[in-house]
Write a structure and sequence with these properties.
Helix 1 packs antiparallel against helix 2. This protein is of the alpha/beta class. It is built from 11 helices and 5 strands. The protein starts with a helix and ends in a 5-residue tail after the last helix. The longest helix is centred in the C-terminal third of the chain and has 22 residues. It has a 5-stranded mixed β-sheet.
């Protein structure tokens, strides 16, 4: 019945006589085909999907069309909570990003948060240019600040492509640190640490934050070889919001 209703909707839209380049009819048709495919493979798929979500993962990634979380991770809908923006940023003053994190940690009880950058990132490349792009500059300034924090290292790069790739990685690390600065993440980690110390079976400290980078040219997702916790220990006396 659901597939029939969608097909009826597609036919209704096509009745307006719009040209192929001026319509999204083909996308609705793709959706109908996807529904048929999923139902043929698992007749209860949408029944389960309609019962709500409890994903164990939060993905914070870039809005770039080449970096779709579910496909890259090989996960079905309902498996990962996703937040995407230009440059995969998590500014500590951005109510949008922070609301996503709070909902994911406090209400969905996600166990892992993946901050995922990608090489050939337009936001990173734009931040490396001395050009005022208007409103978006207030957003890109977050990346420029990452550059400033790591300028001693980045100043040594003479190859622009290598510089951009390294800034992609450092930006991911700084956004991971921003996550750890939030009260909601600190409180949940303290709570779950107490569960571990109390001997609760299967307990572990979470959410665990992972620094990842995706390479669109090869499709591989890699974990950066960085110990974020070690970085945190250096500044714990500054950013800790809860008593250990």
């Amino acid at each position: 019945m659901q597939a029939q209703r969608l097909q009826s909707l597609v036919r209704s839209i096509r009745a307006f006589g719009t040209r192929p380049m001026d319509t999204i009819d083909h996308l609705l048709e793709n959706n109908v085909n996807w529904v048929k495919k999923m139902q043929s493979e698992d007749k209860d798929f949408f029944t389960r999907l309609g019962k709500g979500q409890r994903p164990p993962y939060l993905w914070i990634g870039c809005s770039d069309s080449r970096v779709p979380a579910n496909q890259i991770l090989g996960l079905e809908p309902g498996s990962v909570f996703v937040h995407r923006n230009v440059g995969n940023l998590l500014p500590v003053s951005d109510i949008n990003s922070l609301s996503v994190v709070e909902f994911a940690v406090d209400h969905l009880d996600v166990k892992h948060i993946m901050v995922t950058g990608h090489y050939d990132c337009g936001a990173i490349n734009a931040s490396l240019q001395a050009k005022d792009r208007g409103l978006i500059e207030s957003w890109l300034r977050n990346i420029r600040d990452v550059h400033r924090l790591h300028n001693d290292e980045l100043a040594g790069y003479t190859d622009h492509k290598k510089l951009a790739r390294r800034l992609v990685e450092l930006n991911v690390v700084e956004q991971c640190l921003n996550l750890y600065k939030t009260g909601v993440v600190q409180r949940k980690r303290l709570q779950t640490r107490k569960d571990v110390l109390s001997g609760v079976p299967g307990a572990f400290v979470y959410p665990r934050v992972h620094a990842l980078v995706f390479d669109p040219s090869e499709g591989i997702l890699r974990k950066l070889p960085i110990d974020v916790n070690q970085h945190l220990k250096q500044y714990a006396h500054i950013y800790n919001l809860v008593d250990e």
